[in-house]
């Protein structure tokens, strides 16, 4: 699940409430190099406006044109693109990619409200659609599940937004926060030091003056969460790392040299952390990009977080850096 899909549902709900006819289009199957994965979602209203995407753009153009020409789908139906080389070229599906979609009318938004409410509580849920009856259901999902379609019923996953907790409100933190927002993370910055609170100026983020470990406990860190400690103050960084390394957060990193990282691990070992938990720490934080400036270091951290989230091996680490194995965190969203 991509949080973009939650935005699609929000917009579809709002259009419906405004009196528009709305259709949802879901990618159910791809072959070759189709640009969007199964489960990707688009909403389209009766005047041709769309939100979301199912391809690189040309398929959307065709769907919009169909609506503008008066096509009104009144029950779930299958649509195929790119079956021939000519169609693949026409609809911008590279390398002969093919695409199958389900198009359905939005008749009720109660199930959308359920999904939005439950994902806001950091639950992972699944929407089911029966193509023969049009019935829609919402039920709990578990990690590791994937989008499914058996010819009659589809089951699409929706989960909470990825969340980044940044500890420390300095210049590096501000740069990282802006990049994380662009990557569609919910960003929370925590720094109890008053002078840093007064200079935090990143819109669309949440700022907390709580002690970082208290905040980590309150947030109930889950597999959609990343934590990065950037204060250089062991009293703040180590405390939050104790909480984060015991949690299921998919990424935990801390700023510091290899020497400082080794000393930090020695301190952490004095507490109730198992060696395997300590080994989860990414330190020095970030990929080895030769970064010098705060913006460059922020790029290296953001890149490492994305790599870990996608289960990609961390090949750009400095020799001797702590380098946890990349896990299959993509399974959180069923991808």
Rough outline? elongated
- Output the CATH topology of the largest domain: Rossmann fold
**Structure classification:** alpha/beta
> What's the name of the CATH homologous superfamily of the largest domain?
NAD(P)-binding Rossmann-like Domain
Low-pLDDT parts are 328-335
Task: Tell me the distance between the termini.
Answer: 7 Å
Helix content: 25-40%
- Under the CATH scheme, the architecture of the largest domain is 3-Layer(aba) Sandwich
Radius of gyration from the CA trace?
22 Å
How are the strands of the biggest sheet laid out side by side?
Answer: 3-2-1-5-4
Instruction: Note the main sheet.
Output: 5 strands, antiparallel
How many E strands?
A: 14
CATH class of the largest domain: Alpha Beta
Query: Approximately what portion of the residues adopt beta-strand conformation?
Result: 15-25%
**Number of discrete domains:** 2
Number of helices: 11
Report the order of strands and helices: HEEEHEHEHEEEEEHEHEHEHEHHH
**What average pLDDT do the residues reach?**
86
What does this entry look like structurally?
The chain is α/β, with parallel strands linked by helices. The chain has two domains: about 5-155, no CATH class; about 165-335, NAD(P)-binding Rossmann-like Domain (Rossmann fold), CATH 3.40.50.720. About 35% of the residues lie in helices and about 20% in strands. It contains eleven helices and 14 strands. The strands form three sheets. It has a five-stranded antiparallel beta sheet with strand order 3-2-1-5-4. Strands 12-11-10-13-14 form a five-stranded parallel beta sheet, with helices on both faces. It has a four-stranded antiparallel beta sheet with strand order 7-6-9-8, covered by helices on one side. Strand 10, helix 5 (about 170-180) and strand 11 (about 185-190) form a beta-alpha-beta unit. It is elongated and about 65 Å long. The termini are close together. Mean pLDDT is about 85; it is low at about 330-335.
């Amino acid at each position: 699940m991509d949080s973009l899909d939650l935005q699609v549902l929000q917009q579809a709900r709002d259009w419906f409430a405004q009196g528009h006819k709305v259709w949802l289009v879901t990618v159910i199957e791809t072959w070759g190099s189709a640009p969007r994965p199964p489960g990707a979602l688009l909403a389209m209203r009766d005047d041709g406006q769309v939100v979301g995407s199912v391809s690189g753009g040309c398929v959307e153009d065709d769907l919009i044109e169909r609506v503008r020409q008066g096509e009104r789908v009144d029950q779930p139906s299958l649509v195929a693109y790119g079956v021939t080389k000519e169609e693949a070229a026409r609809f911008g599906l590279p390398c002969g990619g093919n695409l199958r979609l389900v198009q359905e009318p939005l008749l009720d938004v109660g199930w959308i409200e359920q999904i939005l409410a439950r994902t806001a509580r950091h639950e992972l849920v699944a929407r089911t659609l029966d193509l023969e009856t049009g019935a829609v259901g919402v039920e709990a999902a578990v990690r590791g599940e994937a989008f499914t379609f058996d010819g009659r019923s589809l089951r699409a996953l929706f989960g909470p937004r990825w969340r980044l907790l940044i500890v420390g409100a300095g210049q590096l933190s501000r740069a990282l926060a802006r990049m994380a927002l662009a990557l569609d993370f919910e960003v929370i910055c925590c720094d109890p030091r008053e002078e840093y609170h007064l200079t935090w100026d990143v819109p669309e983020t949440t700022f907390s003056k709580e002690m970082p470990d208290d905040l980590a406990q309150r947030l109930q860190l889950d597999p959609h969460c990343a934590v990065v400690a950037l204060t250089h103050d062991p009293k703040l960084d180590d405390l939050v790392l104790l909480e984060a390394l015991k949690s299921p957060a998919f990424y935990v990193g801390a700023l510091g040299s290899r020497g400082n990282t080794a000393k930090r691990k020695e301190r952490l070992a004095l507490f109730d952390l198992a060696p395997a938990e300590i080994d989860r720490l990414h330190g020095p934080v970030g990929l080895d990009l030769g970064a010098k400036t705060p913006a460059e270091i922020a790029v290296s951290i953001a890149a490492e977080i994305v790599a870990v989230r996608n289960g990609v091996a961390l090949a750009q680490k400095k020799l001797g850096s702590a380098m946890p194995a990349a896990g299959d965190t993509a399974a959180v969203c069923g991808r």
